[in-house]
Structure to design on (573 residues):
């Protein structure tokens, strides 16, 4: 486990350094087509003779960027909606939760695939699709946590002192529910990375020539028999990143001592 | 009482799903006529085709038509196949059901063994190994695991066919691919659940009676530990259905998942609508059944009227 943390820290470091490197992910070299890894071309070449290593690095940046944006927007929106539902209760709560139920009635990936497909390929539509699916988790979690805190003494005291709803939410509720939300965000990050790659694998996400691990896996699988390194590289990278993020999530959960809860 | 309440709630959700699918396929921008005829089509041809598919009518009219169709189980005709959507889906449904059931069986078997071994040898290196395995299982993307299994099991060993659906041997690789994540999640849940129950009074009593550890695990702990697992499996069926979309594409499995992807790629709106609607409704119904089953297994829930997961 410790070894994995070190590996993932190293990976992040490399990613942070990509802008400093002189990468040419779109450079086509006919003499590098499907070439096996060598010191000069450390992960070999793809079907157009482009460097797999360089495409992998830039793909990582793009994929992490998408995941971060998706998790931030779905987190902000979901938390706001969850606070409203849990704190106000009544018909607002009923209305919001029915919408949440409907979104949850679709298998998440299916809804994202359908949305991304119908909106048309492209990175913006990809993010819209993932946020549409992603916010409900935050909303449900926030609402459940707020419900359990709403009658707490310090919240009642806040009411008695005449604090505004906004003040109570910001200073009495949010700090106490930050921990489970952070864990949700961590696992959400892993999920978003996987979902982005999955959609790109189906051709619905990041479009060529921009590199994405998902489309690299799809293209690599076509040349699996002649150049197994092509599909191995993006797949292992994806596995490592998701594993690392999941490990961080697990650690956080253990550290903050929060039981895995469905609701 | 619980069953009636749950059924009504499920019906409400299904109605919401139908509205969402209508919005998805009718309100979101994107011109199916242009997709079918190309950008340089004649205006007259466009109008004729739009009229043929009812796309020239106002949104409320389209919605009315949509619900009339739903109530008579008529989901329209596929743009691409020129056949009724219901027929196309009905043809593909058995393949998806077969794959989903096989994936569930594989994953539950693996999870049961992994979870029990992990709990039995808790905090030893065997437990660590099993936990690393299940962490790997959750993290591995199925669209990569699939090609890897094809490479190992079909190309190098030659035991299974590369893709397609021809008998039992072609089911093995897709079922493993689809079931891996579920196996990992359930194994983890089972381990934690077993360890928690190991502290319970009735386990101590059983031990004091002099029962062997194995009997305690098998007869007393496991039965109680399986309760949360049932809920978890019910909730994860959505992941199986969603995952089948990708796994069926990887293995060219002729199921509803692959049909959905093909429909999306060819912008076959009625077919997309039908597939998404069917999968979502299926998911709601299965969840309802899980809820009810849970109540039947555990009388405490039937009486209190709320299942663990809602």
């Amino acid at each position: 486990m410790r070894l994995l943390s070190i590996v993932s820290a190293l990976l992040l470091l490399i990613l942070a350094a990509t802008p400093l490197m002189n990468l040419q992910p779109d450079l086509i070299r006919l003499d590098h087509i499907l070439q096996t890894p060598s010191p000069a071309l450390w992960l070999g070449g793809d079907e157009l003779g482009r460097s797999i290593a360089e495409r992998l690095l830039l793909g990582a940046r793009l994929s992490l960027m998408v995941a971060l944006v998706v998790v931030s927007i779905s987190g902000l929106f979901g938390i706001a909606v969850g606070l409203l539902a849990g704190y106000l209760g009544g018909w607002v709560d009923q209305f919001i939760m029915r919408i949440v139920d409907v979104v949850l009635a679709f298998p998440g990936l299916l809804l994202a695939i359908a949305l991304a497909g119908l909106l048309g390929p492209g990175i913006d539509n990809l993010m819209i699709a993932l946020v549409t699916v992603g916010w409900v988790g935050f909303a449900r979690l926030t609402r459940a946590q707020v419900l359990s805190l709403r009658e707490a003494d310090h919240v009642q005291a806040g009411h008695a002192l005449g604090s505004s709803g906004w003040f109570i939410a910001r200073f009495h509720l949010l700090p106490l529910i930050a921990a489970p939300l952070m864990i949700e965000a961590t696992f959400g990050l892993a999920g978003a990375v996987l979902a982005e790659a999955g959609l790109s694998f189906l051709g619905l996400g990041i479009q060529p020539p921009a590199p994405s691990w998902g489309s690299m896996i799809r293209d690599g699988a076509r040349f699996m028999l002649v150049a197994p390194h092509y599909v191995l590289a993006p797949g292992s990278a994806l596995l490592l990143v998701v594993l690392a993020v999941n490990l961080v999530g697990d650690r956080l959960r253990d550290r903050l001592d929060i039981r895995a809860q469905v609701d | 009482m619980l069953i009636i309440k749950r059924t009504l709630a499920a019906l409400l959700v299904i109605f919401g799903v139908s509205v969402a699918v209508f919005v998805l396929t009718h309100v979101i921008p994107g011109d199916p006529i242009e997709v079918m005829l190309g950008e340089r089509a004649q205006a007259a041809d466009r109008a004729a085709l739009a009229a043929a598919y009812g796309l020239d009518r106002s949104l409320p009219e389209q919605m009315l038509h949509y619900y009339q169709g739903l109530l008579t189980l008529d989901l329209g005709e596929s743009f691409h196949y020129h056949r009724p959507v219901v027929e196309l889906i009905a043809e593909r449904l058995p393949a998806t059901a077969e794959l989903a059931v096989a994936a569930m069986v594989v994953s539950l078997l693996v999870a049961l063994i992994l979870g029990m071994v992990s709990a039995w040898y808790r905090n030893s290196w065997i437990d660590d190994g099993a936990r690393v395995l299940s962490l790997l299982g959750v993290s591995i993307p199925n669209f990569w695991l699939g090609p890897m299994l094809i490479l190992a099991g079909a190309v190098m060993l030659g035991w299974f066919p590369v893709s397609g659906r021809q008998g039992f041997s072609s089911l093995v690789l897709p079922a493993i691919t689809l079931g891996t994540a579920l196996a990992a999640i359930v194994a983890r849940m089972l381990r934690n659940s077993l360890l928690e129950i190991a502290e319970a009074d009735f386990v101590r009593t059983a031990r004091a009676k002099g029962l062997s550890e194995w009997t305690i695990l098998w007869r007393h702990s496991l039965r109680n530990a399986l309760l949360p697992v049932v809920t978890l499996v019910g909730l994860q069926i959505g992941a199986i259905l969603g995952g089948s979309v990708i796994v069926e594409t990887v293995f060219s499995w002729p199921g509803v998942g692959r049909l959905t992807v093909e429909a999306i790629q060819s912008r076959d709106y009625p077919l997309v609508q039908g597939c998404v609607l069917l999968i979502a409704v299926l998911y709601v119904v299965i969840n309802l059944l899980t809820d009810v089953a849970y109540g039947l297994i555990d009388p405490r829930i039937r009486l209190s009227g709320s299942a663990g997961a809602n």
